[in-house]
Model the fold of this input.
Amino acid sequence: MIFERTPTVIGHRGYGSGDLTPPGAAAPVAENTLPSLLAAVEAGLSWVEIDVTRTADDDLVLRHDPTTSEGDYVVELAATASGLPRLADVFDALPPGVAVDVDVKTVLEDAVDAPSRRTGALLPPVLKREAERRRLLVTSFDPSLLAFLRDELPGVPLGLLAWLRFPLWHAVPAAAGLGLDAVGVHTGSCGIEHPDTRLRPLEHCVDVAHKAGLETVVWCPTAETAPGYAAAGFDAMVVNDVPGVLAAL
Done:
């Protein structure tokens, strides 16, 4: 079991994507930073989600986009020059009781760089150590990375992410066929906000996922739509409006 309580609310990139101001704070907190993660915990969450990518000096940093805010490619910068939080430093600073969904962003260069330098090869030493002190879930849009980590990180749950409008009736058999532990889909793949007559009923898709041994995650539901995803049986939801979703549930 990945999630002890369902539905578990997970803070998207910490307190939410973008620069949001937590209640009582004097200023916004940037996503994928320690202050954002701690703000989510302070709001009552036991799980947070972070985005991880690699740098030119074979380090791992927190960043969703392949470029910095200045437009430089992260993979072409040393970790210190990027100005981004290092994964290892964030893990060390985050209370061990906080569980983390590590969303791994592979990069174009993973297709041609030496295997030892690719994103997947850099992860196991950090995650093996971290799995000894906190619960983890590793997710990615890259099925080849997940297949690699399945052998490298026994006991660490892995989840396949599906992009917008990639429906559950595709994602569930894909994740099950890869031998993964979870499947994560965007709200745009679920039919609540974007009705699609080709979709199976959402509850049925989630039920089949559970029968296949998969836990289900939906990302970016709003406070208004979160109860519908909870009713459909999703095990977890990755949200931007942390206080709003908590109140709605």
